[in-house]
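haha ok so turns out i had the wrong file open the whole time. this is the CORRECT one, sorry everyone. sequence first:
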Amino acid sequence: MSETLLSEAPAAADAAPPAVEMPWGEVATEHHELLRLAALPTDRTTGPRPLRFVQYGWAERHSERCSLLRLNIVLPGQHVRKEQNCLDVWADHLEKRVWSIPDVLSTEPANRGLGRFMLAQAAAWAKARWPEYRIDSAELPNRDALVEGTRLRRDHVLRTHGLDVEYADAQHLKGSYKATRVSALLTDWNGDKLQRVNVMESATMLQLADKALQEQEVKLRQQEERISKYRREDGSLRFTIACLIAFAVFQAALLIWIATHR
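then structure:
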């Protein structure tokens, strides 16, 4: 099951995008970084959570009218749906507002801290450049409220990033967050679940892994030599035993012949 987190959105969950055609549709991520997803206990909802490494990528563009931050997460050896693990954050310099596409961020693997990390990067990018810009209020999707655990996780993520969540009903189905300023956003993520790995740390991990592999190869070679030695000794013992049996049979036959021919 994918993790569903709500990011900065337009004025309503079903609001149409700005009338102006947005540029940079074909921009691909240009900068990349390694992320370490820490090994965590198995979750009842999302299943096993082993140690994993993923690639985080980003690119940004700027013009007089708008700016774009494009984020994505690539999983080695695994494909995800087109709408997963990607986030475009837009800043409109005429209207002085910030929003994201899609308005709902879906991450895979789920419950590993990727959603909070991506939102934290988006918040830090906008906060460092346009703290006075606004983020419009938005309604929260009802589908996320159908499962209590999903709703609580979503609301926790929103609140940890500085968005004020409120509900219009006692069943917690009609939720929304209030409009705010970019300066009010928080840029923290869960460092126990996810850590950035720089180039030197990556090189160190590769060196340690290569050293451990070489040590295992040496141990395996020693074990194979020991097994070969035991096999040779076993062959020698089998030959000796066969010779002793043959000699014993010969001696017995000789004794029987002597006894019967006296």
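The helical segments are 114-129, 148-160, 199-260.
again sry for the mixup
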